[in-house]
Write a structure and sequence with these properties.
The chain is about 50% helix and about 15% strand. With about 475 residues, it is an alpha+beta fold. Helix 3 crosses helix 4, helix 4 (about 55-70) crosses helix 6 (about 115-120) and helix 13 packs antiparallel against helix 14.
Length: about 475
């Protein structure tokens, strides 16, 4: 299928290219942003694109926001009330299609990629309100297959004066042509972040320029030379010449005594850094929902709330891509293969796992220790360990006793454990257990309390201080050492 973005149109665009930031003033920026709202988007879109490339902070957070979704794994899941067989057929077709798409930039054919690049480019709408791709379909009726190339088209190729995007056939055109159905993929958000970011960019540049002027004027000391010589006398002129040799264009000569003083600017109210830092934090928070780099010293609750904001933005971006592809691309693909039917499957991202697996497993472990049954499904969901497929080899639980790893021979480990256990089960300990059973059987509470108090006083009668256990352990060690030798 032929592309509507012709080589001639791209050539016109490149030849009419200019830097919209040169001479940018608050009045011209406000006019461009206001024109964007009325549908004349070209000037604002050019300014925003240039800011994205020139401002290091915007460039960084923009890439982070887009890549947080584009790097996620995805799968095709059933949707709607269709039968299971129909859902599987649709899922198979969609998975094959999305795994084989191509992506490129309309004005730069060297920028290519696949599905991840498509997702990243679709999220350009976060900054500019719209992200537009031309879909070049490539059907193959003989093989009954469908492929497509998605061309990212910059926003200044369009206007929106009638409530829908229309293609400008030339850079100087005012009104464009309607977009053909099923030929364009348009992702849209409600509020473009670059409208505010462009204002913040201009404010930062103004503050930075003032800061540089301030540094030039007051960054070094002012040379102040005092002298009692008559003005413009021979000695006056000699001293003025000497002063010029150490001058940084900031000096003065006055009367009264022959002294040279270096005046350092102090007490100046210069909030340039604070202004720039504040605007930088605003930009980061707008794009990422948090500014953890500057909030790290604050309490954990604040950091937690910011983390939730960032997670919410990622989820919203996932939904935007999923719904846009489902309503535009997936619908067309399914109807190409199956006729006028609704898709029974859709593409879904596997969201970032933000659960605390360690805490969840600890809770499940304590639950099991207290005799409460824990299902394997709950344990697998908490740990992320998938169930083995049918017939798949599994790792069996080791049955080897812990003493196997001893430096001594392990063949007699079980018999040694039994021997040690028998030593610990002495007659006195059996008597202790019997006494405890007797006390537990008492019905009268006060009688039980008296019996327990007496048991506590005479507890030493039931133990030998561990001598039996120690003697048994020594016999085991002696036998092991003898065997090793």
């Amino acid at each position: 299928m032929k592309s509507e973005i012709t080589d001639e149109r791209i050539l016109w665009e490149k030849r009419s290219r200019y830097n919209p930031l040169l001479g940018l003033r608050p009045q011209t920026l406000r006019a461009a942003n206001d024109a964007f709202k009325t549908g004349y988007m070209s000037k604002a879109a050019r300014i925003w694109e240039e800011v994205e490339e020139c401002d290091g902070i915007v460039s960084t957070v923009r890439a982070k926001r887009r890549k947080s979704v584009s790097r996620l794994a995805w799968n095709i899941v059933p949707f709607g009330n269709a039968s299971e067989d129909t859902a599987k057929e649709h899922a198979s077709i969609l998975e094959d299609f999305y795994n084989n798409i191509s992506w490129t930039h309309a004005c730069n054919g060297h920028r290519t990629g696949g599905f991840s690049r498509l997702v990243e480019a679709m999220l350009d709408c976060v900054g500019k309100k719209y992200s537009v791709h031309e879909i070049v379909w490539n059907p193959n009726p003989q093989a009954r297959s469908l492929r497509a190339t998605f061309k990212f088209v910059p926003l200044y190729f369009f206007e929106d004066t009638f409530g829908e995007l229309r293609l400008l056939k030339s850079p100087n055109a005012v009104f464009g042509d309607e977009l053909k159905p099923d030929k364009w993929l348009i992702a849209a958000t409600d509020y473009p972040l670059m409208a505010a970011c462009s204002v913040y960019y201009l404010m930062k540049q103004m503050s930075l320029a003032d800061w540089l002027v301030f540094s030039r004027r007051f960054g070094s000391a002012l040379a102040w030379l005092k002298t009692d010589e008559p003005a413009h006398s021979e000695k006056w002129e000699a001293m003025a010449s000497a002063l010029a040799n150490i001058d940084n264009e900031s000096s003065l000569m006055t009367g009264n005594a022959d002294t040279l003083t270096l005046l350092q600017a102090s007490g100046q109210n210069a909030p340039f850094k604070e202004v720039i830092d504040h605007l930088t934090r605003l930009v980061i928070t707008m794009w990422l929902g948090s500014d953890l780099a500057t909030m790290s010293s604050q309490d954990g609750a604040g950091a937690s709330l910011q983390g939730e904001s960032a997670a919410m933005l990622e989820d919203d971006d996932c939904l935007l891509i999923e719904e846009t592809l489902a309503n535009t691309v997936s619908r067309f693909v399914i109807r190409y293969y199956f006729g006028n039917v609704e898709p029974a499957a859709y593409l879904q991202f596997q969201r970032t796992d933000r659960s605390d697996k360690k805490a969840a497993l600890e809770i499940l472990g304590m639950t099991a220790d207290r005799g409460v049954s824990v299902s394997q499904k709950a344990w697998r969901e908490a740990s992320g360990v998938a169930a083995p497929d049918e017939g798949e080899a599994v790792i069996e639980k080791s049955q080897t006793p812990m003493l196997q790893d001893s430096a001594f021979g392990a063949n007699d480990a079980e018999s040694d454990i039994d021997e040690l256990s028998r030593a610990m089960s002495t007659e006195k300990k059996r008597k202790l257990l019997a006494e405890l059973d007797r006390i537990e059987a008492m019905d009268d509470a006060s009688q039980r309390a008296d019996a327990l108090a007496e048991l506590e006083r005479n507890i030493g009668e039931y133990f030998d201080g561990g001598r039996a256990e120690a003697e048994a352990m020594m016999k085991i060690l002696e036998r092991r050492i003898s065997n090793e030798k």
